[in-house]
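Same chain as my last thread, 770 residues:
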Amino acid sequence: MLFGKFSNFLTLFILFAVFQEPALAIKKSYIVYLGGHSHGPEVTAADLRRVTDSHTQLLASFLGSEEKANEAIIYNYKRHINGFAAVLEEEEAAEIAKHPDVVSVFRNQAKKLHTTHSWDFLMLERQGVIHQSSAWKKARFGEDTIIANLDTGVWPESKSFSGEGYGPIPSKWKGICQFDDKAGPLCNRKLIGARYFNKGFQAYSGKLNSSYNTPRDTDGHGSHTLSTAAGNFVPGASVFGVGNGTAKGGSPRARVAAYKVCWPPINGSECFDADIVKAFDTAIQDGVDVLSVSLGGSAVPYSMDGLAIAAFHAVKKGVVVVASAGNSGPFPGSVSNVAPWIITVGASTIDRQFEANVQLKNGSILQGTSLSAPLPSQKLYPLISAEHARADNVSAYDAILCLNNTLDSKKAKGKIVVCLRGENARVEKGQEAYRAGAAGMILCNDEESGNEIIADPHILPATHINFTDGRIAFDYLKTARNPQGLITTPTAEYGIKPAPFMASFSSRGPNTITPEILKPDITAPGVNIIAAYSEGVSPTGAAFDVRKTPFNTESGTSMSCPHVSGVAGLIKTLHPDWSPAAIRSAIMTTARIRDNTVNPMRNADYQEATPFAYGSGHIRPNRALDPGLVYDLSVNDYLDFLCGIGYSQTQISQVAGIHYHKCPENYSMLNFNNPSITVLEVRGTVNVTRTVKLVGKPGIYASRVRAPIGYSLAVEPRVLQFEKTGEEKSFKLIITVKRATSTEYGFGELLWSDSSHYVRSPIVLSAADP
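reply #2:
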């Protein structure tokens, strides 16, 4: 696979969620979204009652009575987002859509967490991502900043969320703590709030027992992402003794809150828009500054995307929304969460690796990674291909993948089994080898996974090697008369090269909804990330695993997203008056596109990556704190953007929850003030206008361009002189097709610099058909 007086008008915006039910069921779950509220700053209980009553009355006019309406409604969105979720018949939903106050009715899709779950926190300072600059030292004490996630909740006992040493909770905080623990309150001055939202999930799954009525994390994902964003300094953190160091989040002194919207998957469905929209509405009111959303679904038009709509309401109130790009890479057009008001994050590697190498009897050493327990003794063990260890009536294809119940214990017992990556979870392959009595497992990448290897805490001694080394291992098995080998004890190694490179799973552009907007925006560490974990679940999340650990590694854009959320929190602390768009620009324009070998960033197959993989590049937090210039955007700019992509007033209302927006005449999407520049089907010469705002010291910025092959680029004016902070200057980028021989994409860049700041924008171009 996120108010004062009640308005005289209700712009009814209906998001409806259809959840799978038994074949004979007639009623399904819908979200009825009522646009935006116009409450004042001090909303009263009476205001909220009026909202609820209006929802009931509207639905009662279709169902026949207020009693039936109250039975059908599962949520009221009554603070910033206006609407309700209800269980309705399809015909009823269709009739509601015809009501003159109703903007639209559309199906609400289930979404997924964006982690590889081992099923297929970086020490930021150690990895060279954040250094002890003066800005960082100032920002680290940003206790007034509140970072929250929409996820599987939180493990409150984790040291990453200890309240020791914190001052009073910020007065702006209006949230609550829904833990019900007889030992006393589990929230504190660090973990200042925790809520759960499960009614949308319940409408799909059926009646839930009381164990679901808690924000406690029983999956590990939510604790991992929240601590990555803003976990405390925790010395001595490791995973079963490997990778020992001080764990901390990107914004370690920020307060945190958890909004549990994801639940144990049923038919792959775990996070529902009804719950996500409710969580957004609540978080905005609670006073959150940054929302980290490590989940998503397939990209859909913004007017039909509950998460994009909820995020718009958040951004309108000054909340920064950061979301994961998805784990459907490396396929083109797979990126999700593509709205321009969302910071969309891909995943890349860091220079740390948990080495557990394969030593073959012939002397070959194959580099691997693992967090598994070591072999009982460092001696040579017999090796066997899983294909040759297959049970009777099992295909060679299923066996080599180590699918469940495919191995014969008589053939595998006491040996190291060599399996191929793909289809089932990596840890499930280890479980199958363990079931068959294997001494260990070597997991080899398929060609698609390339050089991306992931450290998992397998239940037996195991390691994961890349595609090239995997071919060597399988060739050795074919040619050696008595193949033997061993797996070395896992150790943390640093300075690995090349790094970073793009994770193969990280979803890629182009943006299938609005190709004019480059997505993802940025990439950040998302492979083998150590962070806090739930002790209510095993490190593999598998039923066969009974181990517990306070820290664990995870991989996915779920892990990269909170890195950016943490940095956004730091920027918010230093620059509380900056808009979400300015923060997004600062993060994007200061990113790097070269690895630690000073070569262009690569994909997992070591081929050169493009902005469709990394967006503006790999995040550099220190530089993001002081970007020099920003490309700013207002809510009105986003509304003009919706005009520019051809949205009608009805569709604009669906997204923004407003009654009317006057679209500018002759508006061009070319001039939408995005930090990246994408121009499609260029013919002849095209002019692009951008405006930059000085957020640093006055000075002179000079431009430099790198044009894609077949194009020429020029900037007018070439130099911008700023006299005071906050001053804005506009410029034109002139794009000319010189000799484009195809309509394939070309990539370049625009750079503004005053010799101490480097403000870089990626450029993506395609030529019109000759």
